[in-house]
């Protein structure tokens, strides 16, 4: 029996599902299962920083300016140490001060420039200088200023140089007096050392003034506000990034500990890391850092596969493009001198982050939670399907209970059938 409807002309009773429709339903279930498996895989991969680090970079440390996720012993050596006078708001020098500083350093020899750079950098950082070189006081007396300079401006410049040489008559009440001029002088000295660096070549003696200056100032580099770059931008756009502070992320492929040559900064050795960038370019970046965690130092001198290397983040100054011999012949690699801001720690090392001691969620625990969630979801779905089936059965029984028995109705129709002769007709005949 078919009951007409304004929506379709199908009946309201259960019918057999065609084979094609059941196949389509089965395929939908397969696709939903694959989608669920994909979600589980993405959830597992989301806990790995290497997956999204090429897009967003590594999140810096939140506390104390210390290197993120580094062992406490290493963090003490690489943390940012702000001097007392730098805790206040720093004043930037003017273009006129920079021009005067450029004119003054032209009167210094290269050796004198290096000596002034060491003294100035440590003095401005608040570090104690045991003994000032005698050449600084001698050279300071020979400096000649522009005769057109005003008396007030000349006085502050003379005090800044005398304070550097340790011959200032008396300390000023204002502790920042002359600091702006000293910052301008240090910037001019750094630029002079950077201009002596020979880009696109092997290491030269002219490179090491800026090399050791950058290595000595590595602890002062900030965690925030630096651009994250890969190997190709540094190689193809050196004019944009040279002597700029950048951040690199990648996998350590080779670890080398190099004994430093004699230098005025007292650096005995340093670490040279050949890093494969995280963005996938097969071009190495040379990262020079003053120290590394034990998880990296244990791999010193061995060639490391890309999948086995430690994931690191380094913030530093892009010094030059270093020429080296690769399997394809002569090649260039960017050199970044700075410090490690992220690196895995070896077993047993203590990290500097307060929550680093918390045990990570294990894979077995994750799968246990995922299995319980799946079982709960399937059980809920089966409960809903069973409840729907029971309600449909009750509805059918209710309709059948109130339906009129058609037997008497059919008998009445049989008595009034037109094929059967009526009693009135028989009487007329």
Which spans have pLDDT < 50 for at least 5 consecutive residues? 58-69, 75-89, 350-358
Q: Estimate the mean pLDDT confidence.
A: 77
Shape summary: elongated
Q: Give a quick account of the main beta sheet: strands, pairing sense, barrel closure.
A: 5 strands, mixed, barrel
Based on helices, strands and strand pairing, what is the structural class?
alpha/beta
Count of individual beta strands: 6
Radius of gyration: 40 Å
Helix content, binned percent: 40-55%
SSE string: HHHHHHHHHEHHEEEHEEHHH
The rounded distance between the terminal residues' Cα atoms is: 42 Å
- The main sheet orders its strands as 2-3-4-6-5
Number of helices: 15
Q: How large is the share of residues in beta strands? A: 5-15%
Looking at this protein, list some descriptive labels.
429 residues, alpha/beta, 5-stranded mixed beta barrel, 15 helices, 14% strand, elongated
SSE blueprint:
Elements: H1 19-45, H2 49-56, H3 72-78, H4 95-105, H5 110-124, H6 134-142, H7 151-165, H8 179-195, H9 208-216, E1 227-228, H10 231-236, H11 238-241, E2 245-259, E3 269-277, E4 285-289, H12 294-297, E5 311-326, E6 329-342, H13 363-401, H14 406-415, H15 423-428
Helix pairs in contact: 4-8, 5-8, 6-7
Summarize the structure.
This protein has 15 helices and 6 strands.
What can you see in these coordinates?
The protein has 429 residues and is an alpha/beta fold. Helices cover 44% and strands 14% of the residues. The chain has 15 helices and six strands. The protein has helices at 19-45, 49-56, 72-78, 95-105, 110-124, 134-142, 151-165, 179-195, 208-216, 231-236, 238-241, 294-297, 363-401, 406-415, 423-428; strands at residues 227-228, 245-259, 269-277, 285-289, 311-326, 329-342. Helix 4 (95-105) packs across helix 8 and helix 5 crosses helix 8. The longest helix is centred in the C-terminal third of the chain and has 39 residues, at 363-401.
């Amino acid at each position: 029996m078919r009951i007409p409807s304004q929506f379709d002309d199908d009946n309201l009773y259960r019918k057999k599902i065609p084979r094609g429709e059941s196949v389509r339903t089965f395929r939908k279930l397969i696709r939903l299962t694959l989608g669920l498996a994909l979600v589980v895989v993405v959830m597992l991969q989301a806990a790995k920083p290497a997956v999204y680090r090429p897009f967003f970079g590594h999140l810096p440390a939140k506390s104390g300016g210390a290197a993120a996720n580094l062992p406490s012993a290493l963090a003490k050596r690489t943390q940012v140490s702000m001097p007392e006078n730098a805790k206040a708001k720093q004043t930037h020098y003017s273009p006129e001060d920079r021009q005067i500083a450029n004119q003054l350093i032209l009167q210094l020899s290269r050796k004198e420039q290096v000596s002034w750079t060491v003294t100035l950098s440590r003095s401005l950082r608040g570090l104690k200088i045991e003994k000032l070189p005698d050449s600084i006081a001698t050279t300071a007396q020979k400096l000649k200023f522009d005769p057109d300079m005003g008396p007030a401006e000349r006085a502050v410049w003379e005090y800044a140089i005398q304070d550097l040489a340790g011959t200032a008559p008396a300390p000023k009440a204002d502790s920042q007096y002359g600091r702006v001029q000293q910052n301008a002088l240090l910037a001019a000295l750094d630029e002079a050392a950077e201009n002596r660096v020979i880009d696109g070549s092997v290491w030269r003696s002219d490179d090491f003034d800026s090399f050791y200056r950058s290595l000595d100032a590595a602890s002062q580099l900030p965690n925030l506000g630096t651009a994250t770059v890969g190997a190709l931008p540094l190689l193809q756009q050196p004019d944009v990034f040279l002597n700029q502070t950048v951040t690199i992320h990648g996998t350590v492929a080779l670890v080398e500990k190099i004994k430093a040559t004699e230098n005025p900064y007292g650096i005995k050795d340093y670490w040279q890391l050949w890093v494969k960038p995280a963005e996938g370019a097969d071009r190495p970046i040379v990262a020079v850092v003053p120290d590394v965690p034990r998880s990296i130092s244990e791999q010193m001198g061995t060639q490391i596969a890309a999948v086995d290397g430690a994931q690191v983040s380094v913030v530093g100054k892009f010094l030059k493009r270093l020429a080296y011999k690769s399997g394809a012949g002569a090649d260039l690699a960017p050199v970044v001198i700075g410090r490690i801001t992220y690196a895995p720690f070896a077993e047993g090392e203590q990290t500097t982050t307060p929550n680093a001691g918390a045990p990570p969620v294990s894979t077995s625990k994750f799968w246990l939670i995922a299995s319980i969630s799946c079982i709960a979801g399937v059980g809920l779905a089966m409960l809903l399907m069973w409840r729907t089936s029971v309600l449909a059965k009750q509805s059918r029984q209710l309709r059948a209970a109130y339906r009129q028995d058609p037997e008497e109705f059919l008998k009445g129709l049989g008595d009034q059938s037109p094929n059967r002769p009526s009693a009135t007709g028989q009487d007329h005949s």
